[in-house]
Amino acid sequence: MKLLASICLILFLLAWSDNKDVFDLLNRFYKPVNYPILRNDSTARFFDSLKNKIVFWKRADVFNPAAIVKDNKIFVLSRCEDNPAAAIGGRTSRIGISSSEDGIHFKSFPEPVLYPKNDSFQKYDSPGGCEDPRIAETSNGTYVLAYTSWNYKIPRLSIAISKDLFHWIKKGPAFAKAYHHQFLDSASKSASMITRMINNKPVLAKIKGKYWMYWGEHFVNLAWSENLYDWYPMLTKNGQLKQTIKTRPNHFDSDLTECGPPALITNKGILLFYNGKNAEGKKADPGLPDGTYSVGKVLFDLKDMETVLSRPDTPFLKPTLPHEIRGQYKAGTTFSEGLVYYQHKWFLYYGTADSFVGVAVSK
Description:
The chain is mostly beta strands. The protein contains three helices and 26 strands. It is 9% helix and 42% strand. The strands form five sheets. Strands 12, 13, 14, 15, 16, 17, 18, 19, 20, 21, 22 and 23 form a twelve-stranded mixed beta sheet that branches. A four-stranded antiparallel beta sheet has the order 1-26-25-24.
């Protein structure tokens, strides 16, 4: 009995230590290279069935990446824009895929894996395209992609499902069925589905029998789902969206609070990385240029996922390198969307200046 008790104690301490290490590692990042790891490609061609012609789908910019580990490689799914002459928001975005064995040097595949096409979701996806993906994996190996459908009118948070990362089944707007379609035609984006570590891999977690995600842009809301594609936002008693966190005047997140990569359950709570945009003028953080995007974090209570345990006043990742302040968005951007655990380190992938992909690695 004493031997069995000792073994149980050791296993408990090891599990506790692993969780502790996860939280600690997620607080310490550095930028291993001072150049973009992914950028535009003016030679990449793709036949667009909607336009009925060949398009150069990566000619303008490649940025805002999701990330996942599969077959001992890191796969990054990036937003790729086609027309460099068009203004921000006026191009067509398609999601491309790249793979790496070291997390820094990538091989990109020639065609996009998710894009507007002649299907029942064209009215949501076209002409603006499929933007800003976040990806997570279920315990049975199904991949769930949350992305923004952009039709030049209303941005909608949408969901797609895949078994191999290359072939995706679109499920449409995430809030289409919720509360008698109340939020179908409301702006929505930026979803961070909640995961937990299983066998050194973040896996979609069920809490109280349901899947959950943080989402939002001007404030953060919590939503739940039973099937990972029909989602129900949390509402106040008068039917408005609940605000778990919102913008803070004179802070790095004074204008926007956009959710980042999938949230992660740690031994201290649920850790969410989010992208704060600095306001302009009197409400701005004076320590950052107006309009700058930086990465912040907030820790939620696992027992009450709307309760904030901690939220630092300053970002832990901000623009410091040339490619983070030189590009389509010149105010400066580190916009995180992808987080993976690979070769005993965390890799955080982010968009820079709406033009490139950068990476930060845990120390």
